[in-house]
């Protein structure tokens, strides 16, 4: 249980990452990923990387610069332009639905304009799921200059699109529906220089 704890990625740039294990029974037609990050990086970095053998950017949350997030599904991406952070925690949720190809992006509990992405696509199930690195090959192929340095917390993956109420609940750390990956029961393995520490502030 990582409640009120964080992963601290200590080095910049870094070859460290956290490998997550999810129990996925079937390919994803819908999903939501949420996480909280805290960093002063201005270079590109990867937050959440879900790769299959067929597609290294099956699901990817990537921040190429302080004013932009990229949300990938099946190797294609949409851009969400955001205000540059004020040196505080940023909470993001990204959800996607195959039937409509609608991609949703929420920053700090507020929705951004929805975009179209990969309608009719299905996300594969045999996945390597990593925090802190971007996979250019299944479970590897890292570029250290896309690595994350800073603190990560409250990582979740659901195999459904969350309702607006639940998106806000995730931001406020309230009760959430059962997840495929849940911060309070996370199955993970630290690879390299990552330390689990108590959260310094709410």
TrEMBL record:
<dbReference type="GO" id="GO:0001849">
    <property type="term" value="F:complement component C1q complex binding"/>
</dbReference>
<keyword id="KW-0964">Secreted</keyword>
<comment type="subunit">
    <text>Homopentamer. Pentaxin (or pentraxin) have a discoid arrangement of 5 non-covalently bound subunits.</text>
</comment>
<feature type="domain" description="Pentraxin (PTX)">
    <location>
        <begin position="3"/>
        <end position="202"/>
    </location>
</feature>
<dbReference type="InterPro" id="IPR030476">
    <property type="entry name" value="Pentaxin_CS"/>
</dbReference>
<dbReference type="GO" id="GO:0006953">
    <property type="term" value="P:acute-phase response"/>
</dbReference>
<keyword id="KW-0479">Metal-binding</keyword>
<feature type="disulfide bond">
    <location>
        <begin position="34"/>
        <end position="93"/>
    </location>
</feature>
<dbReference type="GO" id="GO:0045087">
    <property type="term" value="P:innate immune response"/>
</dbReference>
<keyword id="KW-0011">Acute phase</keyword>
<dbReference type="GO" id="GO:0005615">
    <property type="term" value="C:extracellular space"/>
</dbReference>
<keyword id="KW-0732">Signal</keyword>
<keyword id="KW-0106">Calcium</keyword>
<dbReference type="Pfam" id="PF00354">
    <property type="entry name" value="Pentaxin"/>
</dbReference>
<dbReference type="GO" id="GO:0046872">
    <property type="term" value="F:metal ion binding"/>
</dbReference>
<dbReference type="InterPro" id="IPR051005">
    <property type="entry name" value="Pentraxin_domain"/>
</dbReference>
<comment type="similarity">
    <text>Belongs to the pentraxin family.</text>
</comment>
<dbReference type="InterPro" id="IPR013320">
    <property type="entry name" value="ConA-like_dom_sf"/>
</dbReference>
<dbReference type="InterPro" id="IPR001759">
    <property type="entry name" value="PTX_dom"/>
</dbReference>
<protein>
    <recommendedName>
        <fullName>Pentraxin family member</fullName>
    </recommendedName>
</protein>
<keyword id="KW-1015">Disulfide bond</keyword>
């Amino acid at each position: 249980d990582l409640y009120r704890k964080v992963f601290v990625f200590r080095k910049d740039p870094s070859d460290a990452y956290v490998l997550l294990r999810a129990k996925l029974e079937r390919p994803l037609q819908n999903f939501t990923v949420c996480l909280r990050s805290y960093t002063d990086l201005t270079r590109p970095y990867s937050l959440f990387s879900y790769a299959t053998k067929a597609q290294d950017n099956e699901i990817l949350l990537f921040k190429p610069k302080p004013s932009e997030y990229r949300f990938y599904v099946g190797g294609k991406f949409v851009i969400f332009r955001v205000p540059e952070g004020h040196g505080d925690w940023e909470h993001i949720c990204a959800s996607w639905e195959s039937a409509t190809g609608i991609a949703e992006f929420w920053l700090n509990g507020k929705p951004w304009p929805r975009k179209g992405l990969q309608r009719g696509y299905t996300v594969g199930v045999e996945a390597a799921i990593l925090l802190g690195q971007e996979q250019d090959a299944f479970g590897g192929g890292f570029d250290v200059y896309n690595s994350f340095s800073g603190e990560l917390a409250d990582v979740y993956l659901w195999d459904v699109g969350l309702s607006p109420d639940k998106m806000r609940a995730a931001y406020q750390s309230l009760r959430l529906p059962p997840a495929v990956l849940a911060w309070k029961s996370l199955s993970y393995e630290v690879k390299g220089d990552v330390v689990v520490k108590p959260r310094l502030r709410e």
